[in-house]
Write a structure and sequence with these properties.
Blueprint lengths: L1 H9 L21 H13 L8 H8 L3 H7 L2 H9 L13
Length: 94
């Protein structure tokens, strides 16, 4: 399960060219790099504008099979905040 979540978090990119990256949703027109950058940015700024907003943004990009294992969002958030994730995710409070 950890591998699936790490894969999900690494599957996104920073999207400076898009006007509203906080509201970004999966879109076939996004490049893999844009998706990975968006995910990393969401992780780096997890609590902006609200607590765990970055985790929610990352979860939007989860595949249906990943969501079956890691979802719902509340469970995904628990996974990311679990002790096993220390050092793996910048959004985990230390």
């Amino acid at each position: 399960m950890r591998v699936a979540v790490v894969g999900l978090l690494l599957l996104t990119v920073r999207i400076s060219a898009l006007s509203e990256p906080l509201d970004l949703n999966p879109n076939p027109e996004l490049t893999p790099q844009q998706v990975v950058e968006f995910q990393l940015d969401a992780s780096r700024h997890n609590d902006e504008p609200t607590t765990d907003a970055g985790i929610e943004r990352s979860f939007r990009f989860a595949s249906p099979s990943n969501r079956l294992v890691t979802g719902p969002l509340s469970h995904f958030s628990e996974i990311v905040h679990s002790p096993g994730w220390s050092g793996s995710c910048p959004c985990r409070a230390t």
